[in-house]
């Protein structure tokens, strides 16, 4: 069975602080994909990144960066120099060969950035 | 390019009424997904289609729920009869295909309230 755990329910930071969101997953598959989505207060779900299990390189996109560590089954997400517009719920998700395309979502982490 | 289009954005109706939610996937996407989001249960996958064929409907909560995809550009999720516990945000998502694990792109959702 697949499982995604986002232990942090809510994180509050002041603008310009860095914030790291934890994501720990469980799967018996050797091939799988990991995703992060953002849900701002307006409610839509926005795709941020997809990473396959064979690519452990960290990725940076602007102020966003992702740290994939297969040894600890973690796929953490860092927002550098946070801004008020980063306030949202962030979801980590997993997909594997038992059900390709079917996403197993974590519970989400609410990020609150105050000025 | 247009994203996933859902209608209506908001629906308020009385218990017992039939509710029909509509979705137009991104052109060229072969897979379509229906999700429900509530505070208690988070994001739940209800059903998904590949090339207009339902692949897995194990997430559909009851026989009161049904979904169809008559063609590649349109899908409906119907609840008949509706109940207050069906109140939630319903999302439709589409992707290029299942096996390639392309990311799912979500619509803005339909906020459903059953009184």
Write the layout of secondary structure elements.
The complex is a heterodimer of chains A (115) and B (115).
Chain A: E1 3-5, E2 10-14, E3 19-21, E4 24-26, E5 33-39, E6 46-52, E7 59-61, E8 64-69, E9 74-79, E10 88-95, E11 104-105, E12 109-114
Parallel strand pairs in A: 2-12
Antiparallel strand pairs in A: 1-4, 3-9, 5-6, 5-10, 7-8, 8-9, 10-11, 10-12
Chain B: E1 5-7, E2 10-13, E3 19-24, E4 31-38, E5 42-50, E6 53-56, E7 65-71, E8 74-79, E9 88-95, E10 105-106, E11 110-114
Parallel strand pairs in B: 2-11
Antiparallel strand pairs in B: 1-3, 3-8, 4-5, 4-9, 5-6, 7-8, 9-10, 9-11
Poorly predicted segments of chain A: none
What does the overall shape of chain A look like? globular
Instruction: Please tally the β strands of chain B and state the result.
Output: 11
Oligomer: heterodimer
Number of strands of chain A: 12
Average pLDDT of chain B works out at 93
- Measured as a percent range, the helix fraction of chain A is under 10%
Given the structure, what is the number of helices of chain A?
Answer: 0
Core attributes:
heterodimer, A: 115 residues, mainly beta, 6-stranded mixed beta sheet, 4-stranded antiparallel beta sheet, globular, B: 115 residues, 7-stranded mixed beta sheet, 11 strands, 0% helix, 54% strand
Q: Quick gist of this model?
A:
With 115 residues, chain A is mainly β.
Written account of the structure:
The complex is a heterodimer of chains A (115) and B (115). Chain A is an all-beta fold. Chain A is built from no helices and 12 strands. In chain A, the strands form 3 sheets. In chain A, strands 2, 5, 6, 10, 11 and 12 form a 6-stranded mixed beta sheet that branches. In chain A, a hairpin with a 2-residue loop joins β7 (59-61) and β8. Chain A is globular. Chain A starts with a strand and ends with a strand. In chain B, the strands form 2 sheets. In chain B, strands 2, 4, 5, 6, 9, 10 and 11 form a 7-stranded mixed beta sheet that branches. A 4-stranded antiparallel beta sheet of chain B has the order 1-3-8-7, with no helix packed on it. Chain B starts with a strand and ends with a strand. Classes of the chains: A mainly beta (115), B mainly beta (115).
